[in-house]
Amino acid sequence: MSVWDDLPGQEHAVEQLRRAAESGSPTHAWLMTGPPGSGRSNAARAFAAALLCERGTGCGECHACRTVLADSNPDVTTVVTENVTYMIEDVRELITKAQDRPASGAWRVIIMEDADRMTERTTNVLLKAIEEPPPHSVWILCAPSPADVLVTIRSRCRNVNLRVPSRESVTELLIRRDGLSPEQADFAARVSQGHIGIARRLARSEETRKRRETTVRIPFALKSASDAVRAAGTLVDLATAEATSSADDRAAEEERGLRTAFGIEADATIPPQLRSQFKNIEETRKRRARRGIHDSLDRSLLDVATVYRDILTLQLDTNKELINEHLRDQLQDVANRSSATDTLAHIDAISLARHHITSNVNPLMAVEAMMVSLISQHSTYSTSQGVRS
């Protein structure tokens, strides 16, 4: 076992990071870039483990490697913002943390996921820490592409570019690491389009599979404005339920931990002097839920987009494999009764809705507008019967 085992299809990046870790004098600032699903966070965590590995190889078996991969090593700080953007206070706290000497290893490693969520003002606060870092600190920033961070940060970091792994490599990983059958692993790898995190959730959770199936069947039921409104409500409700449940679970776990730390029984009243700390958990829960709704909705819209990607594949007769192969009959029916121009317009509508949601447009309004724009190619025929209405 190695810390690099969860990075299928990233041989070039792994070699670059492995050599840097084994050199003993790595660059002090790194920028991990790649599209969603490429494994930026996994690569950052694997690199941190290799830097602190007791054997110097990223063995994956020593105490340092195991604690880094389990997010419990005191020398590694991983931060993920619960807001739409990072707050300046978050970054200042990280800068202070970077000044601390390592507790047991050779390096103090700071992993900043979604570095593209920093505003220009926040980035400028981080800039000086990266320009003049303590000799024992290593910064690892993660973003979709180098262009998503300011050039002042980008020019001071060593870039490692990752790619979305192939379906075959994700399938092999799911079989080897998660014990899935070849059929389960292949399905999860195909419909996730190589996104390892999503593939694992699909493989492990029946509820996740049901939610996706509901989502990808929505386009075939759009025949009127009322259908569009109902479909939009379904998507937003599913995203809200998923995000709220996740945020509630994390908040409950954090409250239990805080009660344990202060010796407060589960059903005991919280002392007045500690109420502010418990209130912070509730405020964080709300922020997580809001961001979670946006993220969950975005995943759902990407799932809807796969339907139109498959329709376009059939219309252009590319002989490419369909993502939603189990819906081939419905997809072929739509492809026969519409044009590639129509399909491209619908893909653009989905992209616009995703942009609106990230721009803080009311999610329900953005999705309703998108669904209405998708009606045109479905309203003049029935995809289930193949007859004009």
From TrEMBL:
<dbReference type="Pfam" id="PF13177">
    <property type="entry name" value="DNA_pol3_delta2"/>
</dbReference>
<protein>
    <submittedName>
        <fullName>DNA polymerase III subunit delta</fullName>
    </submittedName>
</protein>
<dbReference type="InterPro" id="IPR004622">
    <property type="entry name" value="DNA_pol_HolB"/>
</dbReference>
<dbReference type="GO" id="GO:0006261">
    <property type="term" value="P:DNA-templated DNA replication"/>
</dbReference>
<dbReference type="InterPro" id="IPR027417">
    <property type="entry name" value="P-loop_NTPase"/>
</dbReference>
<dbReference type="GO" id="GO:0003887">
    <property type="term" value="F:DNA-directed DNA polymerase activity"/>
</dbReference>
<dbReference type="GO" id="GO:0008408">
    <property type="term" value="F:3'-5' exonuclease activity"/>
</dbReference>
<dbReference type="InterPro" id="IPR050238">
    <property type="entry name" value="DNA_Rep/Repair_Clamp_Loader"/>
</dbReference>
